């Protein structure tokens, strides 16, 4: 009987620890958030690549908790604004940080 209580306590502690491992922290996504961010990144990259003027440039897209950061180089200020606009209109994007530079 005592063994069952010890085993139960151990299993409870292990399950609590495993759930805590999937939780989000201020600097790290939860598992679900990571998958959402990955999907947002893919959608933003697809939107940028679909634009014939922007697909020629190296624009890096990183998403963290719904905030998209665009970095890299573009040919003009208009193309920079177009990339930001495309990213803003992707579903799930909360904000866009523009770290791009004009060549």
UniProtKB/TrEMBL annotation:
GO CC terms: periplasmic space
Organism of origin: mine drainage metagenome
Coiled-coil spans in chain: none
Cited Gene3D superfamilies: 3.30.1340.30
Protein name according to UniProt: Putative Transport-associated protein
Native organism taxonomy: unclassified sequences, metagenomes, ecological metagenomes
Main localisation: periplasm
Pfam families: BON (PF04972)
Positions of the BON domain: 36-103
UniProt-annotated location(s): Periplasm
Keywords: Periplasm, Repeat, Signal
Record bears the keyword Repeat: yes
């Amino acid at each position: 009987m005592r063994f069952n209580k010890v085993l139960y306590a151990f299993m409870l502690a292990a399950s609590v620890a495993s759930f805590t491992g999937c939780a989000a922290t201020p600097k790290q996504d939860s598992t679900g958030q990571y998958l959402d961010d990955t999907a947002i990144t893919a959608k933003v990259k697809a939107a940028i690549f679909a634009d014939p003027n922007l697909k020629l440039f190296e624009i890096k897209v990183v998403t963290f908790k719904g905030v998209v950061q665009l970095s890299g180089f573009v040919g003009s200020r208009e193309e920079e604004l177009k990339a930001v606009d495309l990213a803003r209109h992707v579903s799930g994007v909360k904000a866009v940080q523009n770290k791009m530079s004009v060549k």
